[in-house]
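Q: How would the structure tokens look for this protein?
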Amino acid sequence: MKKPAVRPIRHLRWWIISLVMVGTAVNYLARSALGAAAPTLTKELDMSTQAYSYVVAAFQLAYTVVQPIAGWVLDALGAKLGLTIFAIGWSLANMAHALAGGWPMLAGFRGLLGVFEGAVIPAAMKTVSDWFPAKERSIATGWFNIGTALGSMAAPPLVIWCILEGSWRLAFVVTGGVGLVWAGLWAWFYHRPQQHPRISAEELAYIQAGQAQKLAQKAAKGPGWLAVARTRKFWAIALPRFLADPAWQTFNFWIPLYLATVRGMDLKQIAAFAWLPFLAADLGSIAGGYLSPALMRFGGVSLLTARKLTVLTGAVLMIGPAMIGLAPNAYWAVALFCVGGFAHQVLSGALITLSADVFPDNQVATATGMAGTAAWTGGLLFSLVVGALATTVGYNPLFVALAIFDLIGAAILFTLMREKQSLA
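A: Here is the predicted structure in token form.
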């Protein structure tokens, strides 16, 4: 008996990117649980600020090292199978945090979490590359990128509720369990456009028509880390990401501890306010995604110039969090953190999208992973600096440094990324 035809889902690519957004949120919920639990963990496990920085660094080091490997695996296995494996891994590693009896054990589980979480951004960009024409990529990136802030935003209230109702161990079990549910959804629903049973012929034709140059590039270039690293365009993306990511990792891992130790907030106040910078970051992801097409349409600039101007806009706005030391109270400090969250996501989305713009399909995840390693190397080094200097020189000079880094990164991007670069 012949099976009935499956009815296509209208605008399926946007449903796909919504699923990616949820997965990104789940990923960042898991990694942000530590920061939200930090005021409790540092007391119950008798951790100094320096020891806490080592725990943070364990995740960052593993995440930094694994991203090119994760990108290569995703290019080899595809986003469906590859991300399913990584999502199950990060969920189980996050749940294992509940077994920690001291900071060295916690650092070990944190490193394991970093090993598996490194796949999410390369997988997301591979999905954008597969499912979207060039003119829609920054918008798609903006929408999935709000998941980074959604997860970080959800962590403080959820984790602190688990602490108040149970314990910090319960918080890691709950946030890890959410990831297992998402992994099942991804494995069931995701396919590439050419194989998806719910895509319409019209939408498939529309996607492929906007990827004509990308399809031609795929036959002309081979995958591999060395092939990517030899290109000028890779360093044009990687160096600004190295300079930009310390801001995002500082916001993720240090805001609750800063509000508690410097601004005197208690757990309930942190739960009430620490999520706001990530709400602002969500708005920045969306605004940044639409800014590039707007610049192209109304300003008449090229795709690459639009991306570069978007990065510059975010870098200039980072002057806001540089002034946190001047904030008269904790509420003004949170407001300036909000400016920082918005600014970072504006520039971050444009930088990440550039990998899909200038690299062929079979190098997108690899290039994104390698650039991610550069980004997380910057974040790792800066977290160690925060851990070493926060109790001596204070946080304020460190916040100023974040703005300077982003302005330098924008200058590097304008210098190295030339219009003659081939676009996908």
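Residues 12-416 form a domain with the Growth Hormone; Chain: A; fold (CATH 1.20.1250.20).

The longest helix spans residues 12-44.

Upvote if useful.
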